Amino acid sequence: MSMTETSVTRPASLPAMSLTGLFSAHPLFLGASVALLLSMVPVLAAMVLDDRQFNGVNIWDKPFKFQVALSVYLLTLAFFERFVPFQTRQARWYRWHGLAVVGAVTLEMIWIAGAAANGMASHFNVTDPVLASVYGFMGFLAVLLTSATLVQGLAIRANRETGLSPVLHHSIWIGLVMTFVLTVPVAGTMSSQTGHLVGGNLSDAEGLALIGWARDGGDLRVAHFLATHAMHAIPVFGLMLAWFGRSRDRTSVTMFAALFAALVVFTLLQAMAGRPFLGWLG
Amino acid sequence: MTPDTVFPLANMAALAGWVALLASPWQPRMAQIVSGTVIPLGLALLYTAIVLAFWSSGEGGFDTLANVAALFKSPWLLLAGWVHYLAFDLFVGAWIARRARDERIPFLLVIPCLALTFLFGPAGFLAFSILRASFAAARPKTV
Q1: Nearest CA to CA, how far is A116 from chain B (Å)?
Q2: Is the pLDDT confidence value at A111 over 80?
Q3: What is the pLDDT of residue A201?
Q4: Predicted ipTM?
């Protein structure tokens, strides 16, 4: 077997290189992700010192969760960036959009951590007109930062020279686009409620281990979580298809994506009906 | 954890940094890593955590002397102010040791500047700046 044949059968262009090299196609997103990762250290230190609670959990719980989530988000985008056509990556509008995304992430993070420092709510805080408009602006920033998946997904879709098998190419761009398409309406619905919990005792103290979802009532964060992780779940499904030799089976990817969307809608309706997701879990 | 339990720990960390600076003629790289990076960053982390956790519980502000005094009525914020001194004084101490070495200023003359920086921060910085300027003036110019 020749060298070329072996490289053709590999599912994706994943050259063996350094850890940061995996994400070097988008230095800005990689750098912002590392900055979020490092800024967890002072937040965790504050968590140790601070006894204040919000909604039954330590007040720094939420900033920490957002740091984890946004760090993973940007790192994933930096990883997929290699599949965006080179000309697109060089385009001025595209670079400005990336900068705006990082700006939106930064502002969201500053607001969430600042609210925690001051012992006040960040999301759902409409206690006075100023805070209500800040909350509205946060919504705009959230859509802006989520739009990175739409832009990247469509750019990857347009790329005919990714070197990916059909099933991976298909699952990556669909996963990215679905993150935007599902997250925006789910988060929009969520923000029109009065809080992320429906029914139950309206405290985060009794939630699922690690992730904190309510076990005694509806939790709108479940649908948001799943919606946003479409960018991971669908490509992983595509990767599995490729491993099992079904590298041309795009139909299965589309069907999985549809099922995944149905799951998101189901968890959203379930939460709005005040019922827990995985409430039986420890 | 209370401000009174954290205070001696912060002091010991800073003191270790100053001891490392005294050893800097023999261990310049080690001294710079310990006193110029690791310990100041550790103190900076402690300071930041205190401010994140307790700033909103304090009263006062930076605008008037009375407000600054009010800030320091909170033991945690008083500790933060103290850690601020410790961190930045040590950082300046490491800078002094580095500059003195680069400019070949005898370490025996640098020790009083380090001692002043340790005890009275800005006064040590001023003393070293005078020493540095004097050496620069006296040194024959290479054209």
Answers
A1: 8
A2: yes
A3: 75
A4: 0.81
